[in-house]
Amino acid sequence: MKLGQATIKDIARELNVSSSTVSRALKDYPGISFETKKKVKDLAEKLNYRPNAIALSLRKSKSFTIGVIIPEVVHFFFSTVISGIEEVAFKNGYNVILCQTNEKLEREINCVETMLSNQIDGLLVSYSKETTDFSHFINLIDMEIPVVFFDRIPNIKNAVNVTVNDFSGGYQATKHLIDQGYRRIAHLAGPSNLAISKKRKEGYLAALSDSGISIDENLIVECPSANEKESFEICLRLFKDPINRPDAIFAHHDIVAAGAMMAIKSLGLRIPEDIGVVGFSNWQFASMIDPPLTSVLQPGIQIGEKATKILLEMIQNKDINHQEISNVVLDTELLIRKSSVKNY
Amino acid sequence: MKLGQATIKDIARELNVSSSTVSRALKDYPGISFETKKKVKDLAEKLNYRPNAIALSLRKSKSFTIGVIIPEVVHFFFSTVISGIEEVAFKNGYNVILCQTNEKLEREINCVETMLSNQIDGLLVSYSKETTDFSHFINLIDMEIPVVFFDRIPNIKNAVNVTVNDFSGGYQATKHLIDQGYRRIAHLAGPSNLAISKKRKEGYLAALSDSGISIDENLIVECPSANEKESFEICLRLFKDPINRPDAIFAHHDIVAAGAMMAIKSLGLRIPEDIGVVGFSNWQFASMIDPPLTSVLQPGIQIGEKATKILLEMIQNKDINHQEISNVVLDTELLIRKSSVKNY
DNA sequence: TTGTACGCGTTATCAA
DNA sequence: TTGATAACGCGTACAA
């Protein structure tokens, strides 16, 4: 018995018909006698025949595969996005091939190469923190390969972007802290080359402005690595001066917020009585820490679904009007928990 | 077909040589004049030539792709495993195609079909909670397609399994609680059809036994869904009776532990003073919750790496001795934090 | 040193 | 109603 899978040729040989007949019979093409059709289908069943997707790809110049490039899988938000992507792709008969960059530009370029070699029909990307030159993506777009950016979106002509309303998320978060009576609200900002960092910060600034609170540059600190350790240390410094210290923190995301909370606790300060805290993304742990963390919900699954739906549309209908879909912005929602409400 | 993807034929035509010459020149085959080689390579560079992986797959009957089937991406442990898988696969020039089952058997079978159609060279699997019949996997093994199971491993002849020592993890956790002076230790067990649930429970039982503590069946409760809500409710019931209530919890995993912690707090009990808690898997949030949760480290990245290395070995060397690698067990490590140490 | 021919699995096209 | 052929892109045995 031959290794591997039965092919159309195997069926044809065994039944003494041509492979085209088998192909047509299997696909219920008109003009095949009922008899032949039955013979073929029965044998196919018996041999456990399965069409070879690789051969199909070659024949049709279409791989039914979409590529996904993300910074890292081990990141709650990205894992939810992947989940949404996989879900929609699977339902539409597309495969997902996955590549993580570990936030390295070199690796990212390498991933794009791999994707190209593998003839992906389209690509979903959230680029790395190191990426400032987008030519490897622009090349793809120039080759007319559909590309959709999500979450971290570049400023590229003809790019299609899916993201949440980071500005409004930042605004909501900050406004909420103001409404709760906090006045010296610090912002732990994200890496400055990411548009999301800029947007969240702008939302923060706008909320302060709108409430007539003057902006104190000392209260805005960038967290380039955006991990809990970095944020812990930054906060220790930030809280050193008891006079000028902030009374609330709006963090770029929940991990940063968690680091801040640890710093606050380690200084013997109370959350939310002394310091209020709001995060971003609503990581899984947000509701489980103590006190539960108020956070801006960033609907990862929906982002993944939406981005994939758009990508599939672009793949299936090349003449789609890019202008209309070039910037999809999903709504955020503030999930209020104890970390920011004094009388919760 | 994507515009601008140059093929060997394009190069051949332009240079007035045969495509075999181009093919050979590109791969530095002997017997090609330096001159031709240079011409070909230069033009390839200029045209941005990239070998078509699909054509190569067909030609070589090898896809350089491995499939990964997991219950869900949005699960910290699995996301770490995927990360390890992707890392090793990428380094070895293999692609990763991903399929999640959402814990559904039907979907799982469907995923296997997809993988087969796509001619994966090998498969990594952690099966769904619903799966009790493994014939869809056994078929693969019978077809001599390399399959490696990780974390959730079946009892199948010739299967290759990679897992952590769940028994010893359960034992460590329980022993630690005993050493801390806890005596009425409850176990919130995982879904009963998973070997990992059984193993962790056996470790728990053995530790009690070895310490001469009698086993109270009322203190062992299964959590079939293993989410925080379920565990919260189970714990409320478990703690209703102030006389017979447990003084510690060993949970199947950290999410279950987190649910338990919420229940404990909501009843006004203190952790670890009144109730000690130990989880499993060391989810990312374990160190961030209050009090930080003692947990059994389950090295997901290493599991992913190890499983992939073994799979690639099986793919590249069909004559490998399965007996020797049929059961790889990685060590767990107990990370002791405040949730289980009264005088931390 | 280079070219020809074939096959990997499939299907569209034309011919019978 | 069915068959033969070519083509998708590539590599390679064989021929020149």
From TrEMBL, chains A, B:
Cited InterPro entries: HTH_LacI, Lambda_DNA-bd_dom_sf, Peripla_BP/Lac1_sug-bd_dom, Peripla_BP_I
Q: Which keywords belong to this entry?
A: DNA-binding, Transcription, Transcription regulation
Transcription: present as a keyword of the record? Answer: yes
Q: Which residues form a coiled coil?
A: none
- Gene Ontology terms, MF aspect: DNA-binding transcription factor activity; transcription cis-regulatory region binding
HTH lacI-type domain residues = 6-60
Protein's UniProt name:
LacI family transcriptional regulator
Species of provenance: Cecembia calidifontis
